[in-house]
């Protein structure tokens, strides 16, 4: 198995509800991070094999594979794929795990992992507004299931 390394890390400042970052579309906010990443690392996006992006609330501005749209918003070449994963509060960590697995297995050489949530535009629980995401069998099993993952760790 090949060794993997984290070459560079970039993030936006922590925002607050309706604060300075709230006007950004999730793809545009991600694009800022992606472009800062390649600049700091001193690499061309052309060598990137994949982008794996975590996002919990994949509705509204964050729907339809925000990972892929982040790559396009960054102006990176169209041949670079992007995908989006959701593992609730661990989505970006899962993105990193998938990236590491791809490099360790030899399938890919350079993978970018990260994630995005613009909670001013897509608040916690937004997916529930359009239906019942857990289904009747889960609700039957957990009758007191009146909370979501973002609240349960408290």
From TrEMBL:
Q: Which InterPro entries match?
A: Thiolase-like, Thiolase_N
- Report domain Thiolase N-terminal positions: 5-127
User: GO terms for molecular function, please?
Assistant: acyltransferase activity, transferring groups other than amino-acyl groups
Q: Which SUPFAM superfamilies does the record match to this protein? A: Thiolase-like (SSF53901)
Organism of origin: Mycolicibacterium conceptionense
Reading the lineage from the top rank, the first entry is: Bacteria
Designated name of the protein: Acyl-CoA dehydrogenase
């Amino acid at each position: 198995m090949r060794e993997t390394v984290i070459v560079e890390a970039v993030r936006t400042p922590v925002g607050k509800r309706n604060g300075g970052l709230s006007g950004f579309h999730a793809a545009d906010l991600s694009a800022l991070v992606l472009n800062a990443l390649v600049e700091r690392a001193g690499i061309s996006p052309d060598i990137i094999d994949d982008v794996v992006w975590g996002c919990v609330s994949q509705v509204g501005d964050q729907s339809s594979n925000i990972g892929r749209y982040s790559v396009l918003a960054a102006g990176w070449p169209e041949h670079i794929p992007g995908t989006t994963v959701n593992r609730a509060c661990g989505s970006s960590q899962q993105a990193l795990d998938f990236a590491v697995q791809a490099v360790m297995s030899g399938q890919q050489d350079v993978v970018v992992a990260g994630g995005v949530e613009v909670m001013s535009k897509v608040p916690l629980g937004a997916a529930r507004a359009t239906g019942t995401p857990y289904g009747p069998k889960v609700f039957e099993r957990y009758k007191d299931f009146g909370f979501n993952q973002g609240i349960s760790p408290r």
